[in-house]
Amino acid sequence: MEFVAQDIDREKEMVSLVEALKRIAGPIIEIGGPTLPDKFHPHSYRLIKLNEIPKRLWTVNIDLFHENEEWDQDAGVWRLVKYPSPDIQADGMMLPLGKESVGAVFASALPDPIRNSVLREVHRILEPGGLVIWQYGIPRDIKKARQVGLIKIGGMDSPSGSHDYVFKKPKPMTDSGSPKRALLI
Ligand SMILES: C[S@@+](CC[C@H](N)C(=O)[O-])C[C@H]1O[C@@H](n2cnc3c(N)ncnc32)[C@H](O)[C@@H]1O
Fold first, then answer.
1. pTM for this structure?
2. Does ligand 1 lie within 6 Å of residue 44's CB atom?
3. Residue nearest to atom 26 of ligand 1 (CA)
4. Which of 84, 85, 113, 168 is the most exposed place for a label (fewest CB within 10 A)?
5. What pLDDT score does 180 carry?
6. Taking the C-alpha atoms of 149, 45, 50 and 23 in order, what is their torsion angle to the nearest 10 degrees?
7. Mean pLDDT score, 85-97
8. pLDDT reported for residue 2
9. What CATH number does the domain containing 20 carry?
10. Which domain does 24 fall in, by range?
């Protein structure tokens, strides 16, 4: 029963994410991408089907050539999977992108040592109201995200113990609680 409830929540999360991504203005990038579909993650991202995102996903990776050993369940062997080259070769901790120039950021299974710096950089490049889809996170990422100014607005903890989060860069608020007029123009 628990699994059923989680699956239903995941479906809801996917629908609302598609709608939220339609409202963002800037481009959508993936840091540490691309993330390839596999048997367990047929859409690459568990919280959203990449073919449903409203814009092209521009991939950014520090390496032009990335390969990974992945388990082939059917054949019962490890296989070396070669990933396509990213659109942009750059360090996710120091991106060649302007302040508040990006609408949404995807990231999946980023190495632990770079997560904090990537979150700080993501906050810099994200437009106010922008979103972060952070797959294979760890609970410590939530605290770091909050420290750099991102708030957790959704996500899913899977029965296998992995965590997917959705963070948002809040729009600045006026004293009355509504977004600053100047920033909406
Ligand atoms: C474990 S793989 C995950 C690949 C893919 N996102 C996935 O989920 O299957 C980690 C990826 O992060 C990339 N990476 C490592 N350090 C990086 C950095 N400083 N900036 C950008 N990408 C980086 C690696 O090249 C690799 O492609």
1. 0.88
2. no
3. 32
4. 113
5. 60
6. -30
7. 98
8. 34
9. 3.40.50.150
10. 2-184
Once rounded to an integer, what is the mean pLDDT over residues 28-39? 92
114 in ligand 1 pocket by Cβ < 6 Å?
Answer: yes
Question: At 10, is the pLDDT very low, low, confident or very high (cuts 50, 70, 90)?
Answer: low
Average pLDDT of the segment spanning 101-109: 97
pLDDT digits (tens, 9 = 90+) for 128-170: 999 999 999 999 999 999 999 999 999 988 878 889 999 999 9
Residue in 66, 71, 93 to alter for ligand 1 test, most ligand atoms within 8 A of Cβ: 66
Tokens representing 21 are: 């991504």
71 contacts 78 by C-beta, under 8 angstroms = yes
- Work out the angle between the directed axes of helices 115-125 and 139-148 (0-180°, nearest 10): 40
State both tokens at 51. Answer: 């073919």
Contacts of 182 (CB under 8 A, 6+ apart): none
How far, in Å, is the centroid of ligand 1 from the Cα of 32?
4
Number of domains present in the structure of the chain? 1
Residues 6+ apart with CB under 8 A from 67: 80, 81, 82, 83
